[in-house]
Amino acid sequence: MMSELGPVLAEFNTVVERYCDDVRSPPYWFNERASVSLLAAAAWRLGWVGVEEFSTRKVLALRDDPEQGIHRHGRCDLFLRSPRGTSFAIEAKQVVANQQDLDARTRDALRRARDDARQLFSTEASCRLAVAFVVPILRATDEGEHSEDLDEWQRSCVSVFNGPRRINHACIFPGVAGNFLGPRRRAFWPGVILVAQRIFRRASTVTSAAGDSSGQSLVAGAADD
To answer: Mind giving me the DSSP string for the chain?
Structure first.
């Protein structure tokens, strides 16, 4: 099931790079909603269908029996369905991180996305996903140059996901984005990391609303949690 995401993650990289080339501005420095739209665009380009920010029912899980928790109305960040009929209900978070706190902030964003995804009923889609968009920043010198080595930065980003609990992820550092300074011109925003993890919880009987540039990139498949 998760293997179907591979082409979408690869296309996400392509979408980000095309935006950077055309608009000359990194789309991921805006907010979580903008990054979710890039993932949706990648899926649509491959023949998938999807909808963002749709209303649905959620449950605030109780420790003893999550399915008997308090039901409420809420929104899901993204619903995707593949041509093969596999569907994904996605909850996302976005964070900005420097090299020192990359690992901690990535894991915190993924934890918060998991908490939201666990509030979705298991009937929302074939698979519930927690997604974190992590935007690395590189400090700029007074002369507007990189204060850190970009290649080393990319190696640090990749190494975060090579531990024993592997997760699906995509990294894209468009060549042109390496020269984009942030709004206050104090840091560079050279790329974005997308991290995805499947969420498991006991099945529910409730039916959901959704129903059944020398750019450098890396896409890596991973086992389920």
So the answer is: -GGGHHHHHHHHHHHHHHHHHHHSS-GGGS-HHHHHHHHHHHHHHTT-EEEEEEEEEEEE--SS-GGGSEEEEEEEEEEEE-TTS-EEEEEEEEEEE-TTTHHHHHHHHHHHHHHHHTTB-GGG-SEEEEEEEEEE-EEBPTTS-BSS-HHHHHHHHHHTT-SSS--EEEEEE-GGGGG-B-TTSSEE---EEEEEEEE------PPPSS-----EEEEE-----
